[in-house]
C-alpha cells in the first residue's frame, strides 16, 4: 500500500493513504521505522476495513524539516489533528513502538476518541530506549557528521537488532532508505535527540483513565523493550489484555506475521 496522498499544514507535509471499506482502522508506526512496517497488514485488512496508513512528520515520506518538532507531544497533536481531518468516528487504532506513545497522548491529552487500541511492543512508559538510542541522545550532532557509508552500516546493524530473526535484504533496505542522504541522516539523529521521557511519565500517570478495550502484544524475545515492560504497561490499564508472542523480537510484523495477524483480528472484532 503506497502513500499517495498528502496533508499540508504550516509548511509541513504528512504522507498518508487509505484503502478498503468498513470500520476505520488506523496504523501508527514507531521509530526508526515508517508506515512500511504495516503496509502488508493494511493490504490484508482492507477487504473488511477502511485502513489508514501515515508517516509521522520527520519519518518515511513525510517532511523532515529541521525546525519541525518530532517529540511525543508534537506527534500526539499531529495524530489528533489528522483524525479530525479524516473525520473518523471512533477508529480502531493499532500502534507499534513510538506510535504507542503518540496514540496514547492523542487520546489522553488531545481528546481523540477510539473504538479500541492495540499496542504492539510499544514505547509508552519509562524507562525506554536501547543502549544505542541512549548513546545517540548523548552525541546527536557528532553522529550527524558521520561519513555516509558508516552511518549506513550503523543504521543497518541497529535496525537488524530489532528483529529476533534476520530481516531479508529487501526488508532491511526498505526500512533504512528514509534515513539516508543529506536529509535523512540528520533527521534520524534528530528524532532521537528530541526524545523526552517526561512525556512518558505523563502517559503512565494517566493510563488509569482509559476505558476503551486495549490489547497489549509483546515479543517474548524483544531486546529493545523487555517483555516485563509490556506486562507492567498492561497492568496499569484497567481494560487491557496482554499476550506475549514466542519467537518474536521488537519487530513482530516480520518475526511473527501469522500470530500477529490472528491477534490483530481478535482485537479488531471487539465490540
Please give a structural write-up.
There is one protein chain. The chain has 271 residues and is α/β, with parallel strands linked by helices. It has one domain (5-127, 197-269): 3-Layer(aba) Sandwich (Rossmann fold), CATH 3.40.50. It has twelve helices and eight strands. It has helices at residues 39-45, 72-86, 98-109, 131-138, 140-144, 148-160, 169-176, 181-193, 198-206, 227-236, 252-255, 257-268; strands spanning 5-9, 12-19, 24-28, 50-54, 92-97, 116-122, 214-219, 240-245. Strands 1-2-4-3-5-6-7-8 form an eight-stranded mixed β-sheet, sandwiched between helices. Strand 5, helix 3 and strand 6 (116-122) form a beta-alpha-beta unit. Helix 2 (72-86) packs across helix 3 (98-109) and helix 3 (98-109) packs across helix 9 (198-206). The radius of gyration is 17 Å and the shape is globular. The two termini are 27 Å apart. The mean pLDDT is 95.
The biggest beta sheet reads: 8 strands, mixed
Total number of helical segments? 12
Find the structural class using helix and strand composition: alpha/beta
Q: Beta-sheet strand percentage?
A: 15-25%
Number of domains: 1
**Uncertain residue ranges:** none
Q: Assign the CATH architecture.
A: 3-Layer(aba) Sandwich
* Oligomeric grouping of the chains: single chain
Give the CATH class. Alpha Beta
CATH level-four homologous superfamily name: Alpha/Beta hydrolase fold, catalytic domain
**Arithmetic mean of pLDDT:** 95
Termini separation: 27 Å
